[in-house]
Amino acid sequence: MTIVDSHVHLLPERLAAKIRRFFEQRGAPPLLYPYPPEDARQALAEAGVARCWSLPYAHRGGVAERLNRWMAETFAEDAFVVPGGTVHPEDDVAKVVAEALETLHLAVFKIHCSVGRFAADDRRLDPLWRRVSETATPVVVHPGSAHEGAATAEEVEAVARTAARWPDASIIVAHFGSPAIGATLELLSRARSVCADLTPVVADPVSVSRSAIAGLERRILFGSDTPTVALSIEDSLARVRAWRLPPEEEAAVLGGNADRLLARSKDSAPIPARTEAGPNFP
């Protein structure tokens, strides 16, 4: 069975160190994995992961372009890592997204609402949603405003409003919207292009029952949050296996669903940006 970890953060070492300090200064439980990208990558491989999506996120405008370029340059020849891109509402969103898709050939996006201090349905992100709707590029959305990454039902509803406006956008609700899992399940039941990942929030696993996800097995992705996590990759895998899904459904959750989303994106022909690019950022 091929395991694809769809929620990993292999980031520039200085940025990764800053994120680690953020959690340590706020009294987070001990994080299990080293943050240098090559060491975190090795930990994933040793846990049996075959591929991972590396997801950057921008905390303010003006940093996404550099971060996206680093992702593309660092992992261009690495078959283990699917490098992702990011964008912030304060950016020239159309320009950043166009470069990520057309020049850097990044296969997935991540936006982090609490870190970036914006709502999931911020209308400044419309150029992102327009392009990913055209290209079928998946977007991992971490809803919420709390610094620890928790989301409320109202913040998950902002994702629902985005999905309603852009029904062809492949949206993945990060961390299953924890702790607003009920709101995320309800969203999955009514939005055909929305998925959710099982990524824990630091030390808190996604607590969702087998009965609750019945019928949604092809809409759920495995994620570990390596290296910013206090639960082991093996523990997160064991929680999926404890559901005792039929083999084909378990294979879908642990990797097949992630691969299917990327395959849809690869099958979509690139479409030129509709919005004229703005000035370059410094």
Can you describe this structure?
This protein has 282 residues and is an alpha/beta fold. It has a single domain, classed as Alpha-Beta Barrel (TIM Barrel), CATH 3.20.20.140. Helix content is 40%, strand content 12%. Helix 4 (93-103) runs parallel beside helix 6 (126-135) and helix 7 (153-165) packs parallel to helix 8 (181-190).
Topology overview:
Elements: E1 4-8, H1 13-25, H2 37-46, E2 51-54, H3 64-75, E3 81-86, H4 93-103, E4 108-112, H5 113-116, H6 126-135, E5 139-142, H7 153-165, E6 171-173, H8 181-190, E7 194-197, E8 220-221, H9 233-241, H10 247-267
Parallel strand pairs: 1-2, 2-3, 3-4, 4-5, 5-6, 6-7, 7-8
Task: Provide a quick synopsis of the model.
This protein is α/β, with parallel strands linked by helices. It contains ten helices and eight strands. An eight-stranded parallel sheet has the order 1-2-3-4-5-6-7-8, sandwiched between helices.
| Count of discrete domains | 1
SS class: alpha/beta
Low-confidence stretches: 269-282
**How many DSSP-defined strands?**
8
Please state the average pLDDT score: 93
CATH homology superfamily:
Metal-dependent hydrolases
Any key phrases for this structure?
single chain, 282 residues, alpha/beta, TIM Barrel, eight-stranded parallel beta sheet, 10 helices, 12% strand, globular, disordered C terminus
